[in-house]
């Protein structure tokens, strides 16, 4: 039904111990059907797919359990074959299981050292746990049940036959409210469904084991001693052990999987085209200056042996080089004053010292706690952790309201406890924040960039090249005419399928017919960038080219995102979706598009693959063309090579040449390579 990334995994408990005891139906808890828990962004999609894919003969009754007027009656819920709901609702309705630390202390005391012994035979342990342990579990169960009966709402008041967690990576952090709530759901059968079961670390797996009640790994200490520590100590020995465990409980399907000798799914081909863009002379001058400065700086660090100590500084230099390939204006930045108005009132109530402290956090060289890159539009949480505006917005719009900083901060945060530098400064000075125009952002860096880039609305070479690709899709029938109108040998874009002429000249040729042809419907495309400000700049180009588009990024509300996706899928005149790379991994299905444009490169190719898979997935009937736009003779060449290396890396829990790992940490060798002349 769904296809994630290049592969999909179902982890299941087979049958849990609850099925052998009548406790599931005890105390008049009504027996219910299947509960499917998914992110809000794919709830509608699940309902549609169930409607379209399940034959009417099956007579399947489906309830979408969502919204404030949802039923409060558990008996009503129990009437349906399938109930669809979201992680946020489970988080609200189901009493949280205790955090692992507390839980394990308790279990550790009762079970003694047996549970920690590494060579204790697994099968024996599962079938006949030490009696003291059994007692401990029973005792705990009683506590949970009384909790359930008093505080819980309908989802927790029924005994499910089956619970399916879709995009199960939503519970990968076992410390979150949402994970602990999901563990508390009562069911005979449990499934985890995920295209990326491991995103950051082996630790991600623990929460699944806990939800699946897959003993003995559902106890954190046992998980660590039998799985996590062996891998840390000796990956060559630890990974095969994990593979052996996963094989007993996991069904893994990749796009290449064969069933009875035939491919399990038949996807149309995906063609990747490299579009090599050339800078204008001004852009090249700007880039070269930036590059020679950062090379000199890197050399200094390298000679002093302080590359590691200056990691953040170096990433920042790389960021500027990468951004310069997209648009010189990204390097200097422009006003983002309108951010986080909701927190200004909170800021006013903070003591002066706190505000000064938060400002110093923003001024320090900190990487975003979510994407590990230097933050775009840096904001700081009330606990002093720095993030990209987009990364933290996306996090808060999800099912988790704890600070995601890497040091297990876990402070509860909301939109009113995240501050931009402008909000804090204006609170200190008492001056109101000035609005900036969203359509045509002004440059703050005129003095740095000089007069050449004063006009923020001037498209860069890369933007122009991308617009050319989009225009060729919108008007396929006069494609030939246009290319014949271009003089030879003046090319900015070298590629097999685009007309061999510079964007400027082509604009002149087609300028007059623009209004007539703008209503012609062509193929749809998704355009990705990792920077919201690049999307801002690209919007300007789309508007002036009369291309109708929608936008999707992590700073938008869930409702606004749903609307954008729906418009793109259903309105024929909306031909382009511009989308943040960081908002792409949400299980979104956008097979209406058969072209994908990647405006910039991300360190880890997995993220890019996930983005492309919005269009290249089950349901796609046409060939998908991916255009990767890079600028000649820049750092982008070397990032491409680095990505290739990562793709080839053979080290994973799955014994395949793909890790599903989003880690972006670069080694010293990587950095040396990226700065080499
Ligand atoms: Zn970030
Ligand atoms: Zn924090």
Automatic annotation (TrEMBL):
Record has ATP-binding as a keyword: yes
Entry annotated with the keyword Transcription: yes
Pfam family, one: SNF2-rel_dom
GO cellular component: nucleus
Region (Disordered): 1-31, 120-140, 478-505
MF annotations from Gene Ontology: ATP binding; ATP-dependent activity, acting on DNA; DNA binding; helicase activity; hydrolase activity; zinc ion binding
Subcellular location, principal: nucleus
Ranges for domain RING-type: 368-407
Compartmental location: Nucleus
UniProtKB keywords: ATP-binding, Chromatin regulator, DNA-binding, Helicase, Hydrolase, Metal-binding, Nucleotide-binding, Nucleus, RNA-mediated gene silencing, Transcription, Transcription regulation, Zinc, Zinc-finger
Positions of the Helicase ATP-binding domain: 33-215
BP GO terms, sorted: DNA repair; gene silencing by siRNA-directed DNA methylation
Helicase C-terminal domain span: 513-672
Chain intervals with Polar residues compositional bias: 1-24
Family stated for the protein in its record: Belongs to the SNF2/RAD54 helicase family. RAD16 subfamily.
Listed name of the protein: SNF2-related protein
Organism of this sequence: Corchorus olitorius
């Amino acid at each position: 039904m769904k296809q994630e990334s290049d592969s999909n995994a179902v982890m299941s408990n087979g049958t849990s111990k609850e099925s052998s005891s009548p406790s599931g139906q005890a105390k008049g808890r009504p027996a219910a059907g299947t509960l499917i828990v998914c992110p809000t962004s794919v709830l509608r999609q699940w309902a549609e797919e169930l409607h379209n894919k399940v034959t009417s003969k099956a007579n399947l009754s489906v309830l979408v359990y969502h919204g404030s007027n949802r039923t409060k009656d558990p008996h009503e819920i129990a009437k349906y074959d399938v109930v669809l709901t979201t992680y946020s609702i489970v988080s609200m309705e189901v009493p949280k299981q205790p955090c692992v630390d507390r839980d394990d202390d308790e279990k550790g005391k009762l079970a003694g050292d047996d549970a920690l012994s590494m060579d204790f035979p697994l099968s024996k342990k599962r079938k006949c746990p030490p009696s003291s342990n059994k007692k401990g579990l029973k005792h705990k169960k009683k506590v949970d049940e009384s909790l359930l009966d008093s505080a819980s709402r309908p989802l927790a008041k029924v005994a499910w036959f089956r619970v399916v967690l879709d995009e199960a990576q939503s519970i990968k952090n076992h410390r979150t409210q949402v994970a602990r709530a999901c563990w508390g759901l009562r069911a005979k059968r449990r499934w985890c469904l995920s295209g990326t079961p491991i995103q950051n670390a082996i630790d991600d797996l623990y929460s699944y084991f806990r939800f699946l009640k897959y003993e003995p790994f559902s106890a954190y200490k046992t998980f660590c001693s039998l799985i996590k520590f062996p891998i840390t100590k000796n990956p060559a020995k630890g990974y095969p052990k994990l593979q052996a465990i996963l094989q007993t409980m996991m069904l893994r399907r990749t796009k290449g999987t064969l069933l009875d000798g035939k491919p399990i799914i038949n996807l149309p081909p995906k063609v990747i085209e490299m579009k090599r863009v050339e800078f204008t002379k001004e852009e090249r001058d700007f880039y070269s200056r930036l590059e020679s400065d950062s090379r000199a700086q890197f050399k200094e660090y390298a000679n002093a042996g302080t590359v590691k100590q200056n990691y953040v500084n170096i990433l920042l230099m790389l960021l500027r080089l990468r951004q310069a390939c997209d648009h010189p204006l990204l390097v200097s930045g422009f006003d983002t004053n309108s951010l986080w108005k909701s927190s200004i009132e909170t800021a006013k109530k903070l003591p002066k010292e706190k505000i000064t402290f938060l400002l110093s956090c923003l001024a320090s060289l900190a990487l975003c706690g979510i994407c590990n890159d230097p933050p775009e539009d840096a904001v700081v949480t009330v606990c002093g952790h720095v993030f990209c505006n987009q990364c933290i917005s996306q996090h808060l719009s999800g099912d988790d309201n704890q600070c995601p900083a890497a040091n297990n901060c876990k402070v509860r945060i909301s939109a009113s406890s995240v501050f931009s530098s402008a909000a804090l400064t204006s609170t200190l000075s008492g001056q109101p924040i000035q609005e900036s125009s969203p359509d045509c952002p002004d440059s703050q860096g005129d003095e740095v960039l000089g007069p050449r880039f004063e006009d923020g609305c001037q498209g860069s070479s890369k933007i122009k090249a991308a617009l050319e690709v989009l225009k060729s899709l919108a008007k396929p029938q006069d494609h030939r005419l246009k290319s014949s109108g271009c003089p030879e040998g003046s090319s900015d874009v070298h590629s097999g399928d685009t007309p061999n002429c510079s964007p400027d000249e082509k604009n002149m040729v087609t300028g007059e017919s623009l209004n007539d042809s703008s209503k012609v419907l062509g193929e749809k495309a998704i355009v990705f960038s990792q920077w919201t400000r690049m999307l801002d700049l690209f919007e300007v180009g789309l508007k002036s080219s009369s291309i109708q588009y929608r936008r999707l990024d992590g700073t938008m509300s869930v409702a606004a995102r749903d609307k954008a996706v729906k418009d793109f899928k259903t309105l024929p005149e909306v031909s382009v979706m511009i989308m943040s790379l960081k908002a792409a991994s949400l299980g979104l299905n956008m097979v209406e598009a058969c072209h994908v444009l990647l405006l910039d490169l991300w360190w880890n190719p997995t993220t890019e693959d996930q983005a492309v898979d919005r269009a290249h997935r089950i349901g796609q009937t046409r060939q998908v063309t991916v255009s990767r736009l890079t600028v000649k003779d820049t750092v982008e060449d070397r990032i491409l090579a680095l990505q290739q290396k990562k793709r080839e890396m053979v080290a994973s829990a799955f014994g395949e040449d793909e890790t599903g790992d989003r880690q972006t940490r670069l080694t010293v060798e990587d950095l040396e390579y990226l700065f080499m002349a």
